[in-house]
Amino acid sequence: MTDKEFFKKIANGKDDFLQEFVDILKKGKLSFCVIGGLGVNAYAEPVVSLDLDVVIVSEKIDDLLPKLKKKFKLEEFTNSINVAGKGSALRIQIQTDPRYQDFIKRAKVKNVLGYKLPVAAIEDIFQGKVWAAMDETRRASKRQKDLADILRLIEVKDELKDSLPTKLKDQLI
């Protein structure tokens, strides 16, 4: 079974929701990159996740939303837009926090769930996980997952721990 077949099976999708989403981005010539836990998976030993976090070039978001609304269910929040496809357990979250925009420029194509997608640089994914782990408005369970992802990245690139804020360093090391 290929990575893509495995993913489609666990996502329970009849259609290829992820491919449809990516096709809309590519057709619109929208620069984007994968961040979050599936971005971590592109560098570290993978764990199963049905959340795909992406950052899309901010100047194009307003043009993109009507196209997405034609095919998918959207839910807008302060710093994100959640995209859901019919019958798929995959949840795509578009990160709209402006701090993530520079990640797109440093992204490289990697394998994510059997798809070749631009993925933020390991240092950028690490930074995003640090921001998330320190965000006290997030649920404690989400912050714990962020801490685990930080450790997974440090296992791959030990020097990342040098850029950990003291508060997190005390918790983790």
Pick out its properties.
single chain, 173 residues, alpha+beta, five-stranded mixed β-sheet
Describe it:
With 173 residues, this protein is α+β, with helices and mostly antiparallel strands. The chain contains 7 helices and 7 strands, in the order ααβαβαβββββααα. The protein has helices spanning 3-11, 17-27, 36-41, 61-71, 122-134, 140-156, 166-172, and strands spanning 32-35, 51-56, 73-76, 80-84, 91-95, 108-112, 115-119. A 5-stranded mixed beta sheet has the order 1-2-5-4-3. A hairpin with a 2-residue loop joins β6 and β7 (115-119). α5 packs antiparallel against α6. The longest helix is centred in the C-terminal third of the chain and has 17 residues, at 140-156. The protein is globular, with a radius of gyration of 16 Å. The protein starts with a helix and ends with a helix. The model has no long low-confidence stretch (mean pLDDT 93).
Radius of gyration: 16 Å
Which class best fits the helix and strand makeup? alpha+beta
Spell the H/E element sequence: HHEHEHEEEEEHHH
Helix content: 40-55%
As a percent range, the share of strand residues is: 15-25%
The overall pLDDT, averaged over residues, is 93
Strand arrangement, major sheet: 1-2-5-4-3
* Assembly type: single chain
Count of beta strands = 7
Task: Report, as a whole number of angstroms, the end-to-end distance.
Answer: 37 Å
| Shape descriptor | globular
Largest sheet at a glance?
Answer: 5 strands, mixed
| Contiguous helical run count | 7
Q: Low-confidence spans: pLDDT under 50, at least 5 residues? A: none
